[in-house]
Design a protein that fits this description.
By secondary structure, this protein is an alpha/beta fold. Helices cover 30% and strands 23% of the residues. Among the domains are: 151 residues, 3-Layer(bba) Sandwich (Glucose Oxidase, domain 1); 201 residues, Class I glutamine amidotransferase (GATase) domain (Rossmann fold, 3-Layer(aba) Sandwich), CATH 3.40.50; 108 residues, Rossmann fold (3-Layer(aba) Sandwich); 124 residues, Carbamoyl-phosphate synthetase, large subunit oligomerisation domain (Carbamoyl Phosphate Synthetase, Chain A, domain 4), CATH 1.10.1030.10. Strand 1 and strand 2 form a beta hairpin. Helix 9 packs across helix 18 and helix 13 packs across helix 14. The protein is globular.
């Protein structure tokens, strides 16, 4: 077990934090800033814009996927944004000592030590971030044995420290791009090289007045833009020459200063992956990656210059452009890395400007459109003709269709009521919140079937109908009504996602064809309508296989099969649920990841939450322990799947909320899209609870024709609903089963759903949330360990076959001396998760080795509490009673501390 040395983080205002060193044991000072990104620490640490800064990462668990190798591509390190780490120090909450990822070549700690960068974990980063938000960016220092002075990096010319000292040429393309390096990120060069260019990288103060080039690019970089006077002087000359020009971040500020505008220092800067920006004067909104401490004054942009983008949260400037020339800038990072690539099309815009100017020096750039062009269907503007809306409720409670749809329907009714719209609800279940008197104006306790729905339409004559808030029952009913021409007959508008889009996601064959048309990978699959056809399909694809039924919920009728006998039995079962089934290749053992995507009628998209299953593919997501956000995905994987989710949702034409499920190869970036739910689901309800983002409420508003950027964040009341929550905590969902109530029901779990509910635990580490969650599921357990004796007859067999209690089998396996690798070989649960469970086992053994409570030191107690050990678990170790006595808490100086979610 590694022993970490303690060190102190001291702020300029005198506040101190004690943590543990996992980097170089070197004292340092700098400006302390925070970044709220949940992925991408290798990219952030190697970003030259962080020069001179002590970086606080607000997401609590860092180092999960290690650090990739230093392979080169196009004269640059393939996996980093420069050749070195540029931060002065790193501050985090929890360090993953044991990382795991197919692309990792080493640990974060080893990388930091190799570059002499100090780093601390065990710091309360939430409290630290609140201090920076309230007081603003300030100086800080990390101290080990001897004190050092504060050093202000803003007094240094940081750009000079990170800029190249010589000319470097990349590529050999048709279009020569002169790149002014103020601290350029490598991904900027990578993007430019995609478009048949030769990129010539020159120092920040290089006099390029005699240089021949087709387009000028000014990069990002650190520090105060006013310190780059030689660059500003050169840019003033370049602007007069009319050639295309593109500036990013610091480059944006330098062009602004050259144009006569002014800059100012932000209170604590914008450093995150979820900054919402709006193309000025349009309805085009984008999520952007940002890292800057200075901004351009909107009021100072005059003459031939105009605002290009604005920040939707605080109204600050996010870009400017020339009214007549091909010159434009962005404060945000279209190249991302790390972060979303929603605005990467601006690089293509720049190169197109270069081509146009080369062909015609008099080309009129005043009418250019920078919106990313799509061929995707947009929603219609509904105006004020919607006075009353019919909502199809979920009906009777059943597995896969329970409280989550009561939640979503209730939220939708609230949203409509806020708009003054009359609401009509059909739901036969009186034991729901949404059927309470105050929610809907008219309630019909009738079955959600086409016959009864048509009768209500005849009587109430609603203007619109919403299908996405009642689960699969409501969706299937809506599809049948649409197909039978009932909506058209009564001139009833379907609000939100069109029925044609719903039918594409529900029909397995059409769904696969749709995704293939936009180059999205799906499992090899064949849709069939008979057992004989299924047998033929199996010969084409090969065993093992999974069978899925169309138009069903909770994975009904689905399952895995290894031979023809199993396939025949499974098909007979599946055809009892649906007329169509899908026979597809088995991806058992791959990771399962989900994204909750929202799209408005203006084609603006966000992914509110992503989730990762603890169990590998093969277990229905409703049966699996689920962690939000994902823990084992790198920035490339996370944002690749995010980008694909948005492409899928756009191509289908979703308006509202949608769930996209993936299988991800644990040994590469290979993926398959498993399913798309064009409705609110159990995962949607979990995502809403986990993030605080009211998905159903917002989806209902979008169905009425609003844009995301036109709605307010219901938590802050001031910022926009067009944002992706950046969590500084993690959430664990654990299913609840009542299998003992049913005689003869197998305890094995798989691709169809048996769970009847779920719990959600919130915490700052995986160990904490898994222990909290296991206490809540009502099995009489008190956490991962410290429970009553759990009898396991055959560990090897019970690890191999997933059951509702397999996690306790893992605990018993650790107790009996099984290694992480041995458990992985049987379960295929990602090694990172198993290592975290092993941490709990190691701490349990460390606690158990103590003879009495007086031997329990504060560091070990704090570690055990951070890992989710309850007082009861600790009492079971030291005493025979259930709780600590008052004397014990006084000995240990324990006091309660509670964290408030935003």
């Amino acid at each position: 077990m590694i022993k970490y040395k303690k060190a102190r983080l001291i702020l300029e205002n005198g506040q101190e934090f004690e943590g543990f060193s996992f980097g170089s044991e070197t004292a340092t000072s700098g400006e302390i800033v925070f970044n709220t990104a949940m992925t991408g620490y290798p990219e952030s640490l190697s970003d030259p814009s962080y020069k001179g800064q002590i970086l606080v990462l607000t997401y609590p668990s860092i180092g999960n996927y290690g650090v990739p190798g230093k392979e080169s591509e196009d004269q640059m390190l393939k996996n980093f944004e420069s050749d070195n780490i540029h931060i002065n120090a790193l501050i985090i909450s929890d360090y993953s000592e044991k990382h795991h990822h197919w692309n990792a070549s080493g640990s974060l700690a080893d990388w930091l030590k190799s570059e002499n960068i100090p780093a601390l974990f065990g710091i309360d980063t939430r409290m630290l971030t609140k201090i920076i938000r309230e007081k603003g960016s300030m100086l800080a220092k990390i101290v080990f044995d001897e004190d050092i002075d504060f050093v202000d990096p803003n007094k240094l010319n940081l750009v000079d420290l990170v800029s190249t000292k010589e000319k470097i040429v990349y590529g050999n393309g048709k279009h020569k791009i002169l790149l002014i390096d103020c601290g350029v990120k490598s991904n900027i060069i990578r993007y430019l090289l995609k478009y048949d260019t030769t990129v010539v990288r020159v120092p920040w103060d290089y006099d390029f007045s005699q240089e021949e080039y087709d387009g000028l690019f000014i990069s990002n970089g650190p520090g105060d833009p006013t310190m780059c006077s030689p660059t500003i002087k050169n840019l003033k000359t370049a602007i007069n020459e009319d050639k295309p020009m593109f500036g990013i971040c610091l480059g944006h500020q330098l062009i602004a200063l050259a144009s006569g505008a002014k800059t100012y220092k932000l209170k604590f800067g914008h450093r995150s992956h979820n900054q919402p920006v709006l193309q000025y004067g349009s309805n085009n909104a984008y999520l952007s990656s940002q890292n800057h401490g200075f901004a351009v004054e909107n009021e100072s942009i005059t003459g031939d210059w105009e605002i290009f983008f604005v920040n939707l949260n605080d109204g600050s400037n996010e870009g400017l452009k020339h009214k007549k020339k091909a010159i434009f800038t962005t404060q945000f990072h279209p190249e991302a890395s790390s972060g979303p690539t929603d605005t990467a099309f601006l690089f293509e815009d720049f190169i197109n400007s270069v081509k146009q100017f080369k062909n015609d020096k008099n080309f009129d750039f005043s009418q250019r459109n920078h919106k990313k062009q799509t061929a995707y269907p947009l929603g219609e503007k509904l105006g004020e003709e919607i006075k009353s809306v019919l909502i199809l409720g979920s009906g009777a409670l059943k597995i896969g269709e329970a409280g989550e749809f009561d939640y979503s329907g209730s939220q939708a009714l609230k949203a409509l009521k806020e708009e003054g719209i009359k609401t009509i609800l059909i739901n036969p279940n009186i034991a729901t919140v949404q059927t309470s008197e105050e929610f809907a104006d008219e309630i019909y306790f009738l079955p959600v079937t086409p016959y009864f729905v048509e009768k209500i339409i005849q009587k109430e004559k609603p203007d619109g109908v919403m299908l996405a808030f009642g689960g699969q029952t409501a969706l299937n009913c809506g599809v049948e009504l649409f197909s039978n021409g009932i909506f058209e007959k009564y001139n009833l508008k379907v609000l939100g996602t069109p029925v044609s889009a719903i039918m594409e996601t529900e029909d397995r064959e059409r769904f696969a064809e749709k995704l293939h048309s936009i180059n999205i990978d799906t499992p090899k699959s064949i849709a069939v309508t008979s057992v004989n056809d299924a047998m033929t399909a199996a010969k084409t694809i090969g065993f093992p296989l999974i069978v899925r039924a169309a138009f069903t919920l909770g994975g009904q009728g689905s399952g895995f099969c290894d031979n023809e006998d199993e396939l025949e039995k499974l098909c007979s079962k599946a055809f009892s649920y649906s007329k169509q089934i899908l026979v597809e290749e088995s991806l058992k053992g791959w990771k399962e990841v989900e994204y909750e995507v929202v799209r408005d009628r203006f084609d603006n998209c966000i992914t509110v939450c992503n989730m990762e299953n603890f169990d590998p593919l093969g277990i229905h997501t409703g049966e699996s322990i689920v962690i939000a956000p994902s823990q084992t995905l790198s920035n490339r994987e996370y944002h690749k799947l995010r980008r694909l989710s948005i492409e899928i949702v756009r191509s289908i034409g979703i308006v509202g909320e949608c769930n996209v499920q993936y299988a991800l190869d644990p040994h590469s970036e290979d993926y398959r899209v498993i399913e798309v739910n064009a409705r609110l689901s159990r995962s949607s309800a979990l995502a809403s609870k986990a993030t605080g983002y009211p998905l159903a409420f917002v989806a209902a508003k979008l169905g009425l024709g609003y844009g995301l950027h036109q709605l307010k964040n219901s938590v802050t009341k001031t910022t926009t609903a067009f944002f992706e929550p950046a969590l500084d905590y993690m959430v664990c969902k654990i299913p609840r089963w009542d299998l003992k109530k049913f005689i003869g029901v197998s305890s094995e779990i798989g691709s169809s759903m048996k769970s009847v509910g779920e719990i959600m635990a919130i915490g700052r580490s995986f160990e904490e949330v898994i222990q909290k969650g296991l206490r809540m599921i009502g099995l009489g357990m008190h956490g991962f360990l410290g429970n009553k004796e759990y009898e396991v007859k055959d560990i090897e067999n019970e690890l191999s076959k997933p059951t509702d209690k397999r996690i306790f089998v893992i605990a018993e396996a650790f107790r009996q001396g099984w290694t992480v690798q041995e458990i992985f070989d049987k379960t295929k649960i990602d090694i990172w998760f198993l290592e975290k469970l092993k941490n709990i086992q190691d701490t349990f053994e460390e606690l158990s080795s103590l003879k009495n409570i007086s031997d329990l030191k504060s560091d070990l107690l704090l570690k055990s509490k951070k890992q989710g050990f309850s007082d009861f678990q600790l009492a079971r170790i030291f005493f025979d009673n259930e709780t600590f006595g008052q004397d014990d808490t006084e000995i240990l100086k324990i006091r309660d501390l509670r964290k408030k979610m935003n």
